[in-house]
Amino acid sequence: MAASIRIAAAGDVHADTDSRERLASAFAALDDVDLVLLAGDLTTCGDPEEAEVLAEACRGLTAPVYAVLGNHDWHSDRTHELVAVLTDAGVRVLERSTARLDVNGAHVGLVGLKGFVGGFPDSALPDFGEPILRQVYGITTEDVDALDRGLEEIEECDVRIVLLHYAPTVATLGGEPPGIWAFLGSDRLARPIAEHAPDLVVHGHAHAGRLEGSIGGVPVYNVAIHVTGRDFWIFELNGCGRTPHVG
Prior knowledge:
By secondary structure, the protein is an alpha/beta fold. 26% of the residues lie in helices and 23% in strands. The chain is built from six helices and twelve strands. The protein has helices at 20-28, 48-58, 79-88, 131-153, 190-196, 225-228; strands spanning 5-10, 35-39, 65-68, 91-93, 97-103, 106-112, 159-163, 200-203, 212-215, 218-222, 233-237, 245-246. The strands form two sheets. A six-stranded mixed β-sheet has the order 4-3-2-1-11-12. A six-stranded mixed β-sheet has the order 5-6-7-8-10-9. The radius of gyration is 17 Å and the shape is globular. The chain starts with a strand and ends with a strand.
């Protein structure tokens, strides 16, 4: 039987030159985890020099690191450079893509994508009106479809994890003002999660959100460091992908 899998997850680390020592210390302490997940907003303004700060912190890790980008990482429109810096340090950046790896005898499948806006009941963007607004709706549709395909691709894995930046449920938005919920994610992302029932979903972005929620019976965690109050939130899943122990 596969042993348990220990996962360290964090979102919204917002690396910059001022955070070099903080990040180096936080990542150096990850000596007893099997997998590291970074849920977007890896940098402050999407500058490759900021990405290098995070890359330096990741280079010494023995555990594999997977990440998705966030809205901050797109701000400078230099994502290709940013991803290249992180890839050179061994970080695998997922965007509407999947990964499979063996961890402690278990086959682990990851689906990673940034996600996008669109809102939730009573504050949802419709597929109607000005073309530019319908374009936003269409981008979220592409994310929903990619998430659905990705979960189909990893269906046979022992443990299945979804890594996002934007929230797929209001359950983890917590103290965020309802007036900005449309910019914090979309419950359209919840449909493939509910249908495929992965073992764990993690996201970030909502700094004033709530740590824990669910979609059906699927546990969803907002691992933004502003929410967890620590450098990493630790999950322990058994090799059969059962409900995680967290702390």
